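To fix ideas, we close by showing one paired sequence and structure record:
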Amino acid sequence: MGRIPTPVVAASGLVGGYGVARWTKQRPLGGVALAAAGAVAARQWARSAGAGKAAALSGLYVAAFAGSHPLAKKVGAWPSVFAVAGGVALASWAVERRA
Protein backbone atom coordinates (compact mmCIF):
# COMPACT_ATOMS: atom_id res chain seq x y z
CA MET A 1 0.00 0.00 0.00
CA GLY A 2 1.40 3.38 -0.98
CA ARG A 3 1.73 6.31 1.33
CA ILE A 4 -1.02 8.91 1.40
CA PRO A 5 0.16 12.19 -0.19
CA THR A 6 1.15 14.73 2.44
CA PRO A 7 -1.18 17.48 1.22
CA VAL A 8 -4.08 15.05 1.75
CA VAL A 9 -2.85 14.12 5.24
CA ALA A 10 -2.53 17.76 6.29
CA ALA A 11 -5.89 18.86 4.87
CA SER A 12 -7.59 15.79 6.35
CA GLY A 13 -6.13 16.60 9.75
CA LEU A 14 -7.65 20.07 9.75
CA VAL A 15 -11.03 18.97 8.39
CA GLY A 16 -11.11 15.75 10.40
CA GLY A 17 -10.06 17.42 13.63
CA TYR A 18 -12.88 19.91 13.34
CA GLY A 19 -15.37 17.23 12.33
CA VAL A 20 -14.46 14.97 15.24
CA ALA A 21 -14.70 17.84 17.70
CA ARG A 22 -18.04 18.98 16.34
CA TRP A 23 -19.74 15.60 16.04
CA THR A 24 -18.51 14.14 19.31
CA LYS A 25 -18.82 17.44 21.19
CA GLN A 26 -15.39 16.59 22.62
CA ARG A 27 -12.95 19.31 21.60
CA PRO A 28 -9.95 17.44 23.07
CA LEU A 29 -10.76 14.43 20.88
CA GLY A 30 -10.74 16.69 17.83
CA GLY A 31 -7.39 18.02 19.01
CA VAL A 32 -6.02 14.48 19.13
CA ALA A 33 -7.08 13.90 15.51
CA LEU A 34 -5.61 17.26 14.47
CA ALA A 35 -2.31 16.57 16.26
CA ALA A 36 -2.00 12.99 14.97
CA ALA A 37 -2.42 14.04 11.36
CA GLY A 38 -0.06 16.97 11.91
CA ALA A 39 2.61 14.64 13.28
CA VAL A 40 2.27 12.28 10.32
CA ALA A 41 2.43 15.20 7.88
CA ALA A 42 5.47 16.68 9.63
CA ARG A 43 7.33 13.37 9.42
CA GLN A 44 6.53 13.07 5.71
CA TRP A 45 7.53 16.70 5.07
CA ALA A 46 10.86 16.11 6.81
CA ARG A 47 11.54 13.07 4.62
CA SER A 48 10.58 14.71 1.36
CA ALA A 49 11.60 18.36 1.83
CA GLY A 50 13.99 18.50 4.79
CA ALA A 51 13.76 19.60 8.39
CA GLY A 52 13.63 23.35 7.76
CA LYS A 53 10.75 23.17 5.30
CA ALA A 54 8.99 20.66 7.53
CA ALA A 55 9.20 23.12 10.42
CA ALA A 56 7.82 25.92 8.24
CA LEU A 57 4.95 23.78 6.99
CA SER A 58 4.21 22.59 10.53
CA GLY A 59 4.07 26.21 11.63
CA LEU A 60 1.68 26.94 8.77
CA TYR A 61 -0.49 23.98 9.86
CA VAL A 62 -0.75 25.38 13.39
CA ALA A 63 -1.33 28.92 12.09
CA ALA A 64 -4.09 27.64 9.79
CA PHE A 65 -5.80 25.97 12.73
CA ALA A 66 -5.59 29.17 14.77
CA GLY A 67 -6.57 31.37 11.85
CA SER A 68 -9.65 29.32 11.06
CA HIS A 69 -11.29 30.56 14.26
CA PRO A 70 -11.50 34.29 13.44
CA LEU A 71 -12.20 33.46 9.80
CA ALA A 72 -15.17 31.33 10.88
CA LYS A 73 -16.79 34.40 12.42
CA LYS A 74 -16.83 35.99 8.97
CA VAL A 75 -17.63 33.09 6.62
CA GLY A 76 -18.89 30.26 8.82
CA ALA A 77 -17.20 27.27 10.42
CA TRP A 78 -17.09 24.74 7.59
CA PRO A 79 -16.11 27.24 4.86
CA SER A 80 -13.33 28.48 7.12
CA VAL A 81 -12.01 24.98 7.81
CA PHE A 82 -12.10 24.06 4.11
CA ALA A 83 -10.34 27.30 3.17
CA VAL A 84 -7.43 26.84 5.56
CA ALA A 85 -7.18 23.13 4.75
CA GLY A 86 -6.95 23.99 1.07
CA GLY A 87 -4.28 26.59 1.75
CA VAL A 88 -2.17 24.14 3.74
CA ALA A 89 -2.61 21.44 1.10
CA LEU A 90 -1.56 23.84 -1.66
CA ALA A 91 1.50 25.01 0.29
CA SER A 92 2.47 21.42 1.05
CA TRP A 93 2.15 20.44 -2.60
CA ALA A 94 4.20 23.44 -3.75
CA VAL A 95 7.01 22.87 -1.25
CA GLU A 96 7.25 19.12 -1.86
CA ARG A 97 7.10 19.62 -5.61
CA ARG A 98 10.19 21.83 -5.48
CA ALA A 99 12.12 19.58 -3.08
In short: The radius of gyration is 13 Å.
